[in-house]
Backbone:
């Protein structure tokens, strides 16, 4: 889908680099509600500061989808910022990641009703030539699950 973006120039200005970030959230219930209102899964990218594979996934695959209207949020490993979980508990982003059993960055999750995962997680960066296909496949599975539940 976005295969042509993988070879994009790595020479970007600071402003362009900032534009390639993904939004964070302090409330997963709010982010999930907004996603489900549009009959889309909430895509959650678990990232690690300084991770080059995370940068590729974020900038070349998820940011273009976010720009096209897909609900995407980023949660960071080792981040102490607080996050309201689906179950109503508040915990750090790092604790949320541990609670979900995530040990590898990047990991991409697809959440549906009640915060349940509605497609297989994408763990790691896979092969760059195929990452877009893996992402498209799981996104299709997630969209079908969310739309069937609506």
Residues:
């Amino acid at each position: 889908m976005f295969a042509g973006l993988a070879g994009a120039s790595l020479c970007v200005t600071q402003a362009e680099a900032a534009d390639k970030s993904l939004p964070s959230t302090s409330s997963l219930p709010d982010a999930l509600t907004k996603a489900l209102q549009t009959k889309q899964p909430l895509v959650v990218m678990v990232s690690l500061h300084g991770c080059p594979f995370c940068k590729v996934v974020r900038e070349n695959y998820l940011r273009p989808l976010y720009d096209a209207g897909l609900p995407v949020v980023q949660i960071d490993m080792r981040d102490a910022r607080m996050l309201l979980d689906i179950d109503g508990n508040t915990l750090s982003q790092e604790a949320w990641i541990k609670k979900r059993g995530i040990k590898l960055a990047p990991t991409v999750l697809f959440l549906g009703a009640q915060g349940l995962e509605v497609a297989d997680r994408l763990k790691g960066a896979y092969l760059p030539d195929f990452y877009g296909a893996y992402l498209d496949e799981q996104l299709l599975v997630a969209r079908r699950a969310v739309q069937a539940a609506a």
